[in-house]
Amino acid sequence: GGALFTLLGLDTRLRVLDVSHNFRLEGSLSMLAALVNLVSLNIGHCRKLTGEFNDLCELSNLTYLSIGYTRIDCNQALEHLEAWSKNFTELDLSGTNMRGPLDPLGSLTRLVTLKIQDCFHLKR
Predict the structure, then answer these.
(1) Taking the domains of the chain in order of start, what are their residue ranges?
(2) Residue 93's CB: how many other CB atoms inside 10 A?
(3) What φ, ψ does residue 6 adopt, rounded to 5°?
(4) Which pLDDT belongs to residue 1?
(5) 67-87 tens-digit pLDDT
(6) Contact criterion met (CB below 8 Å) for 53 and 74
(7) Tell me: domain 4-123, CATH 3.80.10.10, correct?
(8) Which residues contact 100 (CB under 8 A, 6 or more apart)?
């Protein structure tokens, strides 16, 4: 099984979580909501994780987020980024179903790395 989050009994003091490329990892992003001290989250290429981008909004301390090539619903992600975390320095949203204009990214004044390759629904 791949319900890794449950098996780990993740502690709310956790600051960095990288489970990228874990193809067996299953579960909902809502399981991560309690990890409010996370500053770095990499769940890229975890194709069995489910949920919406907004399920991560409780993680307001994040400076690094990689959700590239997941099946997470990012349809309205850009609308919520502005109000979510101005702390982001790195975002990897590659290969997601993110839609809309890129304007909200302008509010992320600390952003130094942005990966949006294979996001076919973005507009200038």
Answers:
(1) 4-123
(2) 28
(3) -70, -45
(4) 45
(5) 999 999 888 787 777 777 788
(6) yes
(7) yes
(8) 76, 78, 79, 121, 122, 123
Q: Whole-angstrom Cα distance, residue 71 to residue 109?
A: 27
Is this structure's pTM higher than 0.85?
yes
Is the predicted pLDDT of residue 94 greater than 50, yes or no? yes
DSSP sequence for 36-99: TT-SEEE-TT-TTEE-BGGGGTT-TT-SEEE-TT---B-TTHHHHHHHH-TT-SEEE-TTS--E
Write the single-letter amino acid at 19. V
Contacts for 117 with CB less than 8 Å, ≥ 6 apart: 94, 95
Paired with 14 in beta bridges are: none
Residue with tokens 């409780």: 58
